[in-house]
Each structure stands twice: as C-alpha cells, then as structure tokens.
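Box 4.2: Ligand-aware structure prediction
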Amino acid sequence: MINADHGSPLLEVRGVTKSFAGVAALKGVDISIVPGEVHCVLGQNGAGKSTLIKILSGVYTPDAGDVAWQGEAVTIADPTAALELGIATMYQELDVVDGLTIAENIFLGHERSIGGLLKVRDANKRARALLERLGHPGLAPSREVASLSPANKQIVSMARALSRDIKLIVMDEPSAVLDSEEVRNLFRVVRELTREGIAVIYISHRLAEIREIGDRITVIKDGRTMATGLPVSETPTPELIRLMTGRDVENVFPPARPVADDAPEVLRVENLGVHGVFEPVSFGVHAGEIFGLAGLVGSGRSEILEAIYGAIKPTSGEVLVRGKALHVGSVPTAVANGIGLSPEERKSQGLILEQQIYRNVTLSSFARFARGGFLNERAERSTARTQLEALELRPADPDRAVGLLSGGNQQKVMLARWLVHGTDVLLLDEPTRGVDVGARAEIYGLIRALSAAGTAIVVVSSEIEEVIGLADRVLVLAEGETLDIVDADQIDESGVLDLVMKGSAA
Ligand code: ADP
Ligand code: MG
C-alpha cells in the first residue's frame, strides 16, 4: 500500500481550470501523484476526466492553475513536452496507426527515424523485448496494427509508452473495450509497471475494478475535485457514490415494493446442477419479484443463469416456467417459453455492435417481423423507437450502430430487446457493468419497473451491494454451493461476505 506521506510527489496539480468556448469543463482540479501508485480518477460522464488527462499530456493547456513535476513548476505545452517529462498517455480512442506495423507504431516519433533493413531489424528486436516485458511475446513486431484486437492495440500503446523513459502512464478508460479476461491481463501489466516504480493514473467508472487495482482515488464532479488521495481500502463504496453523484446511495436504488402475497411463481429451478461447476440449486421466483445471486467470482453465479437459459447443459434438475417443465439445455426452448438473458459480456455475447439499434432490439423477435421471408424493417424500426423512447435512450435513433453507444445505453438496448419480446423471466448478469453511476440509477429504475409490471427477475452482480439493493431475496453462493437464501432487507454486504467466508472454509 502506498503511503502518500512517504513519497514526494511526482506530479502535483493545483486549481487547474479549462473552458471551451465559454463552457467550463474544469473549474478547479487538484490531484497529486506519487511514484509507483495506481491513482484512480473517478467521475460520471462529463465530469472532466478526459479534459484533465489531456492537460497532463499536453493536448490542452490550462486556463489557470499550477502543475509541478518532481517538485518544479512546469508548462506542458504540447504532447512532445509531456513525453520529454516522462508522461505517456493511452487515450480512450486508441491512437495507434492502422497502416503501420507494431514496431513502427512503438517507435513512431522517436528522433532516429526507422529506415533501412538494419534499422527495421533493430526496431523489431527492441519491440519484441518490450512486448515480452508486457507479457505478449506472441505478438510479432512486423504485424500490421490494423489486424489487432482492441486489447492488443492497447498493448502496443503501452509498449510505445515504455519505449521511452516514462515515469507516469495515464490510461483513459482502458477497460471499456476489453472483456474480463483482457482486463485481468491489463491489471497484470499495471502491477508490473508499478513494481518498477512507474505511476499509473487509471480512469474508470467501474468501482469493482478500482477496488481491485487502485491504491488511491480522486473523485471529480462537474469539473471540480470532490476528494483527492482517498485510500481505496479505507473508502466505502457509498461514500464514493455520494462524492460522484452528490446523492446518497439509498437514493440510487429506488424503493422496493413488497411482492404481492398471491403473486404466482413464474420461474422454478429444481435441483438444477452442472457437474463440476455448481451443485444442485433450488429456488422459485414470483411475478414481480427480483431474486439476487450473490457470491464471489467463480462461485457459479453466471453459470446458474446460463443453465436456466439453456446456454450450458445441466447435468441434473429441472427448470419450470409457470409450472411447465422445459426441455433443458436449449436456448430456443427457453426463449420460446419466455426466458430472456442479458449476459455479462454484452459486447461479445449479447449485442451485435456493428448492427443498428433496431436490429439488436428485434433480434429475439424476428418471427414477429418476418413477412414472406423478409424482415419488415419499418415495423422493426418503429417498434424499436417506441421502446427507446420508453427507456429514455437519448437520442432515440434506432438507426445508430450499437457499438457507438455508451455502456448504459447498450444495456438499455438489451433491456429493450426483452421488452419487445415480452419475457416472463429476465436473467440479468452484471446489469451495470460498464455503466456510469448516473446511468446506473436509471437502469435500476428500469429493472424495478419491469418487475413491477410482473416480470420475474434474477440478477447477478459482482457488487454485492447492488444485489442487495435491487433484490427482494438473495441466494448466497460459494464455490458452486448454495449457502442460504435470505430476505434482502435482513442482510448487508458484510453479512454476505461472512457467509461466503464460512462457506469456503467448510
Ligand atoms: P469525462 O471524460 O469525465 O466524461 P470530459 O473531460 O470529456 O469528461 O468532458 C467534460 C466536459 O467538457 C463535458 O461537458 C464536455 O462536453 C466538455 N468538453 C470536453 N472537451 C470539449 C471540447 N473539446 N470542446 C467543448 N467542450 C468539451
Ligand atoms: Mg472521458
């Protein structure tokens, strides 16, 4: 753990302001970074995070305020000046050049330009060493960057930073384009860098990630620093949400309505198990009820949802919808019987990013829009538009590509799909992953509204607080075993963790 009192700061920013055409993006930002720490900058969309880092990387010059580097006042006039100080930046919009090779990208802009066979060979050799250091010996330096995944483009961007004598790397929402496996790899690299004394400014609005990788936190709201240098381990999530939104966490979750006594049981899961993945589990969910699955990563939460949805084949047990036993292990059967799933990795499992919103919305309801072998696009569009308006997706333009939307809006498209299909049972895996805190409250409101309309909902989240805040009842899991099913208002986060720890020790 970094102790700020012990290291003298590498970078100190005081009272920085910046306006664009009279609109104040930053109204007074303070932040101080010490060597070897991961300093997370947290804030809702539009808070000013990207503007701050563009100031640190010399893209913008501040209107007022002071920046000191290793104790001396500096002016970071342009990106070259930032690099000369030792500040490298990985932008949100990755800035690698598609037409060049990996090695050419890494050494782009270095004084000695690379030309001629020997120099290319030398560059490739040095590139390979950097890629090895980043844990990617398999990336060939002569490969064109255009063919790389976003995750690998990030690695190239980091290798470029490391090709210089860098003391601070700024990463602007690097995880936004990554799946969970790639995030783990990124974190491994970040730990490697900090071990060498390099400081990292890590921007994200995913609290779970910040808990995992961060040492200290600075919270920005409306262009102002609300708190700076908070130790991650000593700052509870409700406090962070309050700083980011100016609201208390109780106000983030809409109040639960009691489930009606005579509400029918819509979903019943009976002794459902997948050998070697999770032990047989039984529970029922009523119309209008939100049922939560809480446990740590690897507890089998997501797999239980996938088994109900038919995406993985159970080795025991039954799934019943309104008393009717389904043929298990078949997604089409589950969907035909009114079960919908919003998967954890929406980007790879749920949404077709390059397709328009309306196609993503109607994806599970094609039969309704098919006419004589063709899809009725006008009907698709107008149905999608009605849903987008109901979900307050702005702009409610059904023709936009889903890949261009924010995380919160992508989740809304996913919810719209199941609203159009008319599901009785909705399975939500990490419904707010990649969604900023402001939009989260909206998603929570939508989930509650769906349940109020009679949908039986099962929700999984790695944020235990989210499960408890949303659900009426919570099933606590550890290593694939059901430990208990409790009323959500009878338990808190530490209660769940106590159960999980005891369960794992047993
Ligand atoms: P964040 O990265 O936290 O989402 P930004 O720093 O991108 O926030 O934006 C902060 C505010 O400044 C927003 O209101 C945004 O619209 C505005 N802004 C950012 N860059 C510009 C720009 N180049 N021109 C005009 N307004 C901008
Ligand atoms: Mg930004």
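In the box above, the bound molecule is adenosine-5'-diphosphate. Residues 49-50, 92 surround magnesium ion (ligand 2) (CB under 6 Å).
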